[in-house]
Structure formats: structure tokens, C-alpha cells
């Protein structure tokens, strides 16, 4: 059983309006109460109430900070333990001093993700919901947020548990037949297994079908913008990020040193790759050899090739089109306001009409068409409705693939009337693999690794 009390700063550290320190565990109320002076002692207040007062240094009796303290008593709290939250004036010093005071009590510093880990260990949420919490924090578009939010609410968990329930029923049926073989009608059991595993398989395939889109929504479409100088690449970037709220971030926890820029075209998140590097070198095709830009080009899910409508194609551009037309790529015919000089028939040799997007970036014209083109490449024309459950986590995707394999093995074995205890192994494996998604059958080391991805105070 967890018995120690933990504390951490739960808001981003820096100058801010207010900062929140969260304390969770059996000693939370008692220990914070000794450091707090308000109208009522915290040990006597009802759950889910907020109290105004001061943090007091117990040695000097000096007022340290003006605060609001929230008390949430077990089991009705995020961690299901007693939780006390201290809201202090924002700022580094104030928060550090309160933390120091807390850690001198019977309270220790929480590990990254430990609050959420406790919520998991205490059964409030399962593993996929906890992973949804990480995705929620990291999401960079409304759509990605919605996907993560559904996961936190337990949408995926419920589906997975339904499938596991079906497999448990199948296992129970098999069990009876092993224990009472005299009752077994071999062909009926085989049909039963095929039918049950088949229905689970269908649902898993449906979930896997969403996974490509799910991953894109979560991580963004890795995009490289290429083209010779002066065609309007920077303008495009500015137009897109200006109109569509750019979120610039260096994702914590990734090792790459390039700063990636996130933009969204309506609801589609694009992760722009180190485009500056490409910009300098792609003017001349032989320079594509330059390591950095080649990496970016290779990594890209999507290449946006910008051409100037008012100019003839040069040799490099034609080679480039030939080279990348096999990839997911879109041609942007920019500067439509200029008289056409570009040889569109040459462009059409490599690109279907819907992947050639005329734009006048300077005037912000054509963004809708660009969105349509991207949708047609990545979402078969439409962004699925919000009520779809997307599987976006690579761990979940891998486990679903494994489960699929196990189910196919079970079904094939049943078809061939393989001894039933052999089939049982595959069905049980599928049940365990699904269990790993929600954390029922996950190893401690895996659980530790997942929660270590969280930020401190979450
Ligand atoms: N200040 C603060 N804001 C936060 C959190 C937090 O821990 N603290 N959260 C955390 O990351 C999220 C909210 N999650 C929470 C989930 C459940 C409970 C909770 O106390 N649930 C009880 C009581 C519900 C009720 O009274 O109806 C329960 O379900 O038993 C609190 C926060 C986002 N915002
Ligand atoms: N006529 C016209 N000019 C445009 C349009 N879009 C951009 N330009 C102009 O084209 C010039 C080059 O634009 P940039 O966005 O800097 O082009 P770039 O491809 O990033 O150029 P480099 O950084 O040199 O590679 C600027 O003067 C823009 O104002 C357009 O739609 N029509
Ligand atoms: K301590």
C-alpha cells in the first residue's frame, strides 16, 4: 500500500498569476495544516472546500505567503488519497519557499507523473486513460486534444474491456469443454471460438483502421516545404501560421535539436520540419545530398513543393517533381496573380489535379484548397467525426497488432480442429495483450516507464 505523502509544483515554473502546489497522501491535511493559518484549521474542514489564509514558518511563526488552500478528502480526489492544493502568488521564490517548508515535514518530493500514477494504482483510471493525460498535455491542436480527452474519459478503455469480456466468455466455454470433455461437441466449440474471436478481430481491425489518422492527429503531419528561392515559401509559412494560430514548441523529451514548428490548417495539425535547412539547399538538386535536408525530406510524411506560377519551370524543379512524386506530396502553384508562365502540363505529368493547388499566398488565397488536398491525401477526403475513437498511441497500436495475430492464430487453429487446449493459449494471449493496453496485465517496469514521461507535478 502507498503510505507516504508527496508534494510537487503542479503549474509551470516561472512568473505567473498564481502557482499551485499539490500535496497527496495520508499526511497531506495534517502536515499542511501545521503550516497554515486561516479561519478554520484544515483538519476540521469539509471535503472540496477552499480556504483563505497564510503559510506560516513553524519555527519563526512568521507569515510566509498569502494563499488559498483547497482540501479534497479521500477517496473523492484525483489520486483517491487526501489531497491539499496550495495556490500561491506566482513566482519562483514564493513557490520554492513553500516547497522547502513542505519537504521539511513528513512529505517528500513527488516523482514525475506520480499523482497520476497514484490515480492509476488506486484504480481511479486505467493505463490508457493515464496515457491520455500525457497526450492531453502535449496536444497541439484542438482535434488532438479531443482525441486525448476521449481517451482520458475512458472511451478506449471501455471498448477494450468489452472485447476482453468476450474473450473471457470464450475462455470459460473452452474451460468447460476441457473439464468435461464428454459434453464437448467438437464442431460446435470450434464454431463458437471462430465466431467470438472473429467478432473481436473485426473490432480490432476497425480500431487499427483509425490508428494512422489518430497518430497524425496526435503528432501532426510531418511536413517539409520545398522550392527554389523566392517562390513564396516563407510567405506560405507566415500565412499559415499567422491565420491559423501557430504553436511553436520544442517538444520536451525528444532528443532532436531542431525546433519544430506546429501549425494547423483548420483542424489538421502540421509539424513543419526544419524547413530553413531545406530552403537553403533545395534550390539546387545536387545539394539535396546535404545530410540535414535529406533527413528532413526523408522523414516528411508530406512534401509541399512550391512553384512560381509566373515563371517557367527550371531543370531542378522538374527533377525534384520526378523524384518526390511517388511520395505524399502536393504542388503549390503560387503567385496566381501573375500571368501564367509555368508549364502546367509538365506538372500534370506527375501530379493529379487535386494535388495541384493554385494559391496567391500574398493575398491569403487558396488555403482552403490546400486543406482539401491534404485531407484527400491523409483522411481519404474527410476528417472523421469527433465521436470516433481514435487509437493514436504507438504502444496501443503495437498491442492491437499483436492481439490481431493471436486471434488469427486461434481462429485458424479452430478451423483445423487443433486440440482445444492449444487454441486456449492463443485466446488467453489475446486477452492478455488487450489487458496490457489498459494496464491490467502490464509489468511494473512498463508502468514506471510510462509515468516517467510525465512532467513533474502531474
Ligand atoms: N486544481 C486542480 N485542477 C485540476 C486537477 C487537479 O488535480 N487540481 N486535475 C488533475 O489532474 C484535473 C481534474 N481532475 C480531477 C478529477 C477528479 C477530482 C475529484 O476530486 N474527484 C472526486 C470528487 C468529485 C465530486 O465531488 O463530484 C471523485 O470523483 O470522487 C478532481 C480533479 C484538471 N484540473
Ligand atoms: N505576386 C506575388 N508575390 C508573392 C506571392 N507570395 C509571395 N510573394 C512574394 O514573393 C517574394 C518571395 O517570397 P518569400 O516568401 O520570401 O519566398 P521564399 O520562397 O521563402 O524565398 P527564399 O527565402 O529566398 O527561399 C516576396 O516578395 C513575396 O512578397 C503571391 O502570391 N503573389
Ligand atoms: K521530507
Automatic annotation (TrEMBL):
EC numbers, comma separated: 3.6.-.-
Sequence positions that bind Mg(2+): 234, 255
Bound cofactor: record note: Binds 1 potassium ion per subunit.
Alphabetized InterPro entries for the sequence: G_TrmE, GTP-bd, GTP-bd_TrmE_N, GTPase_MnmE, MnmE_dom2, MnmE_helical, P-loop_NTPase, Small_GTP-bd
Cellular localization per UniProt: Cytoplasm
Gene expressing this chain: mnmE
The protein's enzyme class: hydrolase
Name of protein: tRNA modification GTPase MnmE
Similarity annotation: Belongs to the TRAFAC class TrmE-Era-EngA-EngB-Septin-like GTPase superfamily. TrmE GTPase family.
